[in-house]
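Homework help board

Subject: predicted structure for assignment chain

Our instructor gave us this sequence and asked us to write out the predicted structure in C-alpha cell form, then describe one feature. I got the C-alpha cells but I'm not sure how to describe them. Can anyone check?
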Amino acid sequence: MPIRAVLWDIDDTIFDYANADRIGMSRHLRDVGLPDGYACVEEALAAWKRITEVHWARVAAGETDFEGQRRDRVREFLGAPGMSDDEAGEWFGRHVAHYEAAWSLFPDAVPVLELLARDYRHAVLSNSSLANQEHKLRTLGVRDRFEAVICAVELGISKPEAGAFLAACEAIGLPPREVAYVGDQPDIDARGATDAGLAGIWLDRAGVGGRPELTRITGLDQLAPLLRGDTRFGAPSTFG
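My C-alpha cell output:
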C-alpha cells in the first residue's frame, strides 16, 4: 500500500530549535547576567540544554504541564527552588522574546514541502502543546502547509507511545500503513512510528549513523526519492 501522507515532527526537524534556543538564551544571559554557579556562558548553555531535556521528559510522562515545566526549568537553572510562579514565568518570558527572534526553518524544509505538496497530504505530530506549535508554524509562515496539527499536551499521550501516532493517523483519516513519520529522534520518532505501524523515518542531520534497523536520511532532500522508491513504500527500491 503506497504512502499517502507524511506526518512531521517540528523541533529540530523542520524548525531549527537547537540553534534558536542557544541564540535566545545567549542573548538573554547577556541582558540579565550569568547566574551564580556557572563559570562561563558555555557552561550555562550546556546546563540549560540538559535541564530542558529533563523537564520535557517530565511533560511526556505526565508529571507536569507545559507551563509548569517552563517555570521548573528556570528554578533549576537559577538554583532558586523557592522562586514564585510569577517570577519564574517572567524570567522565562524574557528569554522567549530572544528565542522567538532567532526562529528559522531549516533551509531544506520549504523546498521539500513544495516538492511533496501535490502527491502527499501533510500533518504535524509534536510532543509540545497546540498553542505553542500553532504559534510557531504561523510565525514561520508554514501553518497552511499542514492540514492538522496534533500535540501531546492536548492528546494526553506522547511519542513514542503508539497511541500518539495512531491518534494522528485517525485525525487525518488514514491507516498507519499509509502514513510516513519524519522526525529527528531515532527512538521517539522513527522507532516509535515504526512500532505503531507507520513508516518511521529518522532525520539524522548530524550524521550520527548506526541504527541500521531504522530508515535514515541525513537531509530532507532525500525524502522524496525515499517515499517514491523504497520497497517499504510499495515500489521497487532505488537504493543500493
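Reply (TA_rk): Your C-alpha cells look well-formed. For the description, you could write something like this. Residues 233-240 have pLDDT under 50 and may be disordered. That's the kind of observation they're looking for.
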